[in-house]
Amino acid sequence: MASASGSGGAWTRDIYQITEAVSSTHCEYHEVAVPAGGTTVLADLKGPGLVTYFYITDNSGGKFDPGLVLKVFWDNDPQPAILVPLADFFGAFDGKTIDYESTFMHVNHMSYQCYLPMPFAARARFVLANDGDKPYRRSMAYGIDFEEAPRLAAEKGRLCCTWRRSNPVKEGLHTILETHGHGQYVGNFLYVKTLFKGWWGEGDTVFQRDGRSITHTPGTEDEYGSCWGFGGNFAAACCGYIENDKGKNRMYRWYPRNPVRFREALKVQIQNQHDNGKPAPGDDYTSVAFWYQEKPIPALTLAPYAERVAISRAKP
């Protein structure tokens, strides 16, 4: 697997390759209790290794508690490189589960699955936190498949994930990602709530990469896999539009063969526009961004629970 600094292309590998790596699994099924303000360790893996699959579910009927936060720490870093509400990590915004299948993420009948490769050198800690207003206690099952091999100690890229909400969008721009360092951006989930009755998605996606501004696509539907409007729901390998319900729009985009590579900094923004060139009054945008980066990884922050679950302040 190529590192974040490599020129190899995708984060996928030929499944017929036989290497010196051996496969392991960390699997648990039991009651998990996390008090409000508390944490519990789901897994603490020893490296060098490569997580190849992560799934999780509980007996909530497909609606994770909104206070649950997934934190993943690579090696012995004190700060998490993944810091995101658990449900939103899989695109289940507002606690609503929608089945879909894509290259890196699936949701199938309350089974939340991630296939993004996650290399680590010394250690990988998966932690479940609860910053909500009530304790969590449910029957939970989860599994992490990973490979072990000495050569994986040389992998430099670390999977990172961050959550952002603009409620409402101000000055016509929602920032999906802003980071400094050396890495590559591999995709996102986007959730848009709008009160506008017409076509809401005229906004372009813009990359500010190493000081250069790049307009990637001339409209939201182009970025997320359609053109001339979405025309209906779909879930494809690299892009999908999986919800269109009373002003709620949910979509995803992956870049498995065309990642956005950067050496110094990357800022990913999407315009909030209903008409070309004119900012909308302000819709409600939430996003989850995924990227690989060499250490050091900038400290991530997560909006407080009350802000994450606040009612939409989208403007008509």
List keywords for this structure.
globular, mainly beta, 2 domains, Jelly Rolls, eleven-stranded mixed β-sheet, single chain, about 325 residues, about 5% helix, disordered N terminus, seven-stranded antiparallel β-sheet, 24 strands
Q: What proportion of the residues form beta strands (DSSP E)?
A: over 45%
Number of DSSP strand runs: 24
Structural classification: mainly beta
Which CATH first-tier class of the largest domain would you pick? Mainly Beta
The CATH superfamily name of the largest domain is: Protein of unknown function DUF2961
**Overall body shape:** globular
Describe the biggest sheet? Answer: 11 strands, mixed
**Which fold name fills CATH's third level, the topology of the largest domain?**
Jelly Rolls
- Fraction of residues in helix: under 10%
Number of domains: 2
**SS element count, helices:** 3
Kindly report the average pLDDT value: 94
Which architecture name of the largest domain does CATH use? Sandwich
Could you give a short description of this structure?
The chain folds into two domains: 22-154, Protein of unknown function DUF2961 (Jelly Rolls); 161-308, Protein of unknown function DUF2961 (Jelly Rolls), CATH 2.60.120.
